[in-house]
Design brief:
32% helix, Rieske Iron-sulfur Protein, 6 helices, binds FE2/S2 (inorganic) cluster, 5-stranded antiparallel β-sheet, alpha+beta
Length: 346
C-alpha cells in the first residue's frame, strides 16, 4: 500500500544523532617535556630574530644596490627590486612561521565544544567570554615567556623600518623646479618631432603645431646634447607648448598681452592646468582647446581662459616674437608656473 499525502504526520520524530563527545586529549611533547618546550621556545624566538635580520638586510640593499639609468642587475633583472622584495617577504614569512609554531607547540590546545546559542549573548556569557579571553592570553604564555614576547615585539617593530626607509623615495623637495621652465628670452620655438624652426608664414590660419624649445635639439661645445635622459624628460614635461594661428581680429588679448603674439600666432603651455594632461584637441572655429582627460576647455583667443570643465586656471601663455632670421622665439619665459596646482604655487 502506498503512503497517503498526510501519512508522514503520523510518523514519530526521528531520534537525534547521538553526541559522539570529544576524543581524549593527547598531550604534545612540549606539554610533558620541559626540554622540548624550551627548544620550541628557542625555535620561535629564532624565527622572529631572523625576521629582524631580513628587515635590516632590506635597508642595506636599499642603499647598496643602484637604481636609475645604470642599475645593478642580477640575471638580467633589477637587483634592487629583487632584493627588496625577497628581504621584505622573508621578514614577513619568518614572523608568520614563528607565530604558527608558537600556536602549534606552546599555546594551549585543549579541545573545546561550543554549542549554538541565540545571537545575543547574556551578561553571564559576556563575562565568561572576557574570562576565556584572559585565560587564552594567560595560556599563550605571553606574560610568562618574555623571550618570545620581546622577540615578537622587536620583529614587528623592525618591520616599520623598511617603511620609514622607503620615505626617502619621495625624493628631495622640488624647490623652484615646479615653478620654472627652460623658456627664456631668445629661445627658438621649434617643432617637437624634428626640431625644425618655425616662421610665421609656415603656418596657416586654423593650424596647431606642437612645439618645444630649440635647446632640446642642441649640443654643447663638446658635441654632447644639452639635455638628455631624465633631465631631458623632466624639462620637456614642463616646457611643451602648442602654437596656434588665428585671424588677428578674433583675438582679444589682455592689455599687457597685446604684443605676445605674431600675426595671429599665439603660443600656450601644452600642460593642462587641471591635473597636467598634455592637450592638443583644437577646434579651429571656436578657438577652443579641449583637454581629453576631464574635458576642461580653454579659449585660446581669449588669453587661455577656462570656458568649461574642472581646470581652475587659464592656460599659461608664452610671449613670442620673431628673431632677425624671421623665426619664432620666446620674447620672455612663462610669467607663471605651468601645469596643475602644487602646495607652493601660491
Ligand atoms: S587634466 Fe585636463 S581636464 Fe583634467
Amino acid at each position: 500500500m502506498g503512503d497517503t499525502p498526510d501519512s508522514h504526520l503520523a510518523r514519530p520524530a526521528p531520534e537525534p544523532i547521538p553526541d559522539p563527545g570529544l576524543e581524549p586529549h593527547e598531550p604534545r611533547p612540549t606539554d610533558v617535556d620541559e626540554k622540548a618546550e624550551k627548544r620550541a621556545e628557542r625555535q620561535v624566538a629564532s624565527l622572529f630574530g631572523l625576521s629582524m635580520v631580513f628587515a635590516v638586510l632590506f635597508c642595506v640593499c636599499y642603499f647598496a644596490l643602484k637604481v636609475g639609468n645604470h642599475p645593478t642587475t642580477w640575471l638580467g633583472m633589477g637587483a634592487s627590486n629583487v632584493a627588496l622584495g625577497v628581504c621584505f617577504g622573508l621578514a614577513l614569512l619568518c614572523i608568520g612561521i614563528g607565530a604558527i609554531q608558537w600556536a602549534r607547540k606552546l599555546m594551549g590546545d585543549q579541545e573545546i565544544v561550543e554549542y549554538r546559542h541565540t545571537a545575543a549573548s547574556s551578561e553571564e556569557d559576556r563575562v565568561e567570554a572576557v574570562s576565556s579571553l584572559m585565560k587564552g592570553v594567560a595560556e599563550s604564555g605571553i606574560a610568562r615567556r618574555p623571550l618570545i614576547r620581546n622577540s615578537l615585539l622587536g620583529a614587528t617593530a623592525m618591520l616599520g623600518l623598511p617603511a620609514i626607509v622607503l620615505l626617502r623615495d619621495l625624493g628631495p623637495l622640488p624647490g623652484n623646479d615646479l615653478s620654472t621652465t627652460v623658456w627664456k628670452k631668445g629661445i627658438r620655438v621649434v617643432q617637437d618631432v624634428d626640431g625644425a624652426p618655425i616662421k610665421p608664414e609656415d603656418m596657416v590660419v586654423g593650424q596647431l603645431v606642437n612645439g618645444e624649445p630649440a635647446l632640446f635639439f642642441e649640443n654643447d661645445a663638446e658635441g654632447e646634447p644639452l639635455y638628455e635622459g631624465v633631465r631631458l624628460q623632466q624639462a620637456k614635461a614642463k616646457a611643451a607648448v602648442i602654437i596656434v594661428r588665428m585671424q588677428p581680429d578674433d583675438i582679444t588679448p589682455l592689455p599687457d598681452r597685446k604684443n605676445w603674439g605674431v600675426e595671429g600666432i599665439l603660443c600656450y603651455s601644452k600642460i593642462c592646468t587641471h591635473v597636467g594632461c598634455p592637450i592638443s584637441l583644437w577646434e579651429q572655429q571656436t578657438h577652443h582647446l579641449l583637454c581629453p582627460c576631464h574635458q576642461s576647455t580653454f579659449d585660446l583667443a581669449n588669453n587661455g581662459k577656462v570656458v568649461f570643465g574642472p581646470a581652475a586656471r587659464p592656460l599659461p601663455q608664452l610671449p613670442i616674437t620673431v628673431d632677425s632670421e624671421g623665426y619664432l622665439i620666446a620674447s620672455e619665459g612663462f610669467q607663471e608656473p605651468v601645469g596643475p596646482s602644487f602646495w607652493e604655487r601660491g
